[in-house]
Amino acid sequence: MNGLDNPQRQTRSHRAYFGVFLVVGLAFGLVGPSISLLAEQVGANLASVGIVLITYGFGYVVGTQIFARGYDRGMGNRLIGCSLLVAASCFAVVPLVSARLILALMFLLFGAAVSTSDVGCNTLIVWELKERVGPRLALMHTMFGVGAILSPLIVRGSDAIRGDAAYAFWFTSASITAVAIVVLLHRAPLDPHLEIRQSETDITNRQILLIMSFFLAYVALEVVFVTWIYTYGIKTGLSKNAAAILTSTYWVGFMLGRFATVFLSRKSHGILTIQLGALLNIVVCVALYFRLDSILLPCAFIFGVAAAPQFPLMFGFIGNRTSLSGKMTARIVGTAGLSSTTLPWLAGQLLERLGVAIFPIFLTCTAAIVLVATRLITKSFGVTEHISKTV
Question: Given a cut of 90, is residue 358 above it in pLDDT?
Answer without folding.
Answer: no
